[in-house]
Write a structure and sequence with these properties.
66% helix; 218 residues; Tetracycline Repressor, domain 2; elongated; Arc Repressor Mutant, subunit A; 10 helices; mainly alpha
Length: 218
C-alpha cells in the first residue's frame, strides 16, 4: 500500500472508530469520509461496504486488547491485571454499541472478523486467568470461555441500562466474588485490592473492544 493510501486508511479507521463509538454501527459513512478528509469513493476503495469497515474497526479494537493483555502479563499483581483487562474489555464492548451484533447479523463463518478474533482473545484472556489461578486468587475450575461469556453479558446489560453508569463495575465485582477459591490464599484480598484501581498503561496502547463471543469451553 502506498504511503498516501496508508494514511487515508488509517484516518478512515480512526474516524470510523470514533463514529461507531458515538453513534453505533449505523453511523453515517459519509460523515466518516468527510471527517477523514477524503471522498466517499476513497472510503469504499478501502472498505467495499459497511460490514468491511465494521470488521476492520472490530479487529483494530481487538488488537488493542491483545496488546494490553501482553502488557498486563508483566504485572506483578496477576489478579489486578486480570480485573483491569476484563474491565477494559467491558468498556470497549459498551462503547462500540451494537458492533458485534451487527457483525453477527451478516453471518458468522470461519473467515469472519468474529471468528478471526475469537481464538486470540481467548488465548490472551486465558493467559491472564492462568496467572491469577497460579497466584491462588481464582478457582482452578474457572474456564476462560465462561468468563468471557459473563464479561460479554455484563457489557450488554450496561448497554441496555445507560442510566446506571456504575452497573458494569458492580456486576464485574459480583462476578469476581464468585471466582475466589474457597480455601487457600483468598481472592478477597488480592482481587479486592484490584477492584478500585486499574493497572496503568506503560506501552502507550489505547485504553480498552467489543468482546468476541466465546462459545467454546476450555
Amino acid at each position: 500500500m502506498r504511503a498516501d493510501a496508508r494514511r487515508n486508511y488509517d484516518r478512515l479507521l480512526a474516524e470510523a472508530r470514533a463514529a461507531f463509538a458515538a453513534h453505533g454501527a449505523e453511523a453515517s459513512l459519509e460523515d466518516v469520509a468527510r471527517r477523514a478528509g477524503v471522498g466517499i469513493g476513497t472510503l469504499y476503495r478501502h472498505f467495499p461496504n459497511r460490514n468491511a469497515l465494521l470488521s476492520a474497526v472490530f479487529e483494530d479494537a481487538v488488537n488493542d486488547l491483545l496488546a494490553r493483555a501482553s502488557e498486563l502479563r508483566r504485572s506483578p499483581e496477576p489478579c489486578a491485571a486480570l480485573v483491569t483487562w476484563l474491565r477494559e474489555m467491558i468498556t470497549q464492548a459498551s462503547e462500540y454499541r451494537g458492533l458485534a451484533r451487527a457483525l453477527m447479523s451478516v453471518g458468522h463463518d470461519d473467515t469472519s472478523a468474529l471468528a478471526r478474533c475469537s481464538d486470540p482473545i481467548r488465548e490472551a484472556g486465558g493467559a491472564l486467568l492462568a496467572r491469577a489461578q497460579d497466584a491462588g486468587a481464582v478457582r482452578q475450575d474457572v474456564a476462560i470461555g465462561d468468563l468471557l461469556q459473563l464479561t460479554h453479558a455484563i457489557a450488554l446489560a450496561a448497554e441496555e441500562t445507560s442510566s446506571d453508569p456504575d452497573l458494569a463495575d458492580r456486576l464485574l465485582m459480583l462476578t469476581l466474588r464468585g471466582l475466589k477459591p474457597t480455601q487457600g490464599r483468598g481472592a478477597a484480598s488480592i482481587c479486592g485490592s484490584a477492584a478500585g484501581r486499574d493497572q496503568p498503561h506503560t506501552t502507550g496502547t489505547r485504553a480498552a473492544t467489543p468482546s468476541p463471543t466465546a462459545n467454546r469451553r476450555t
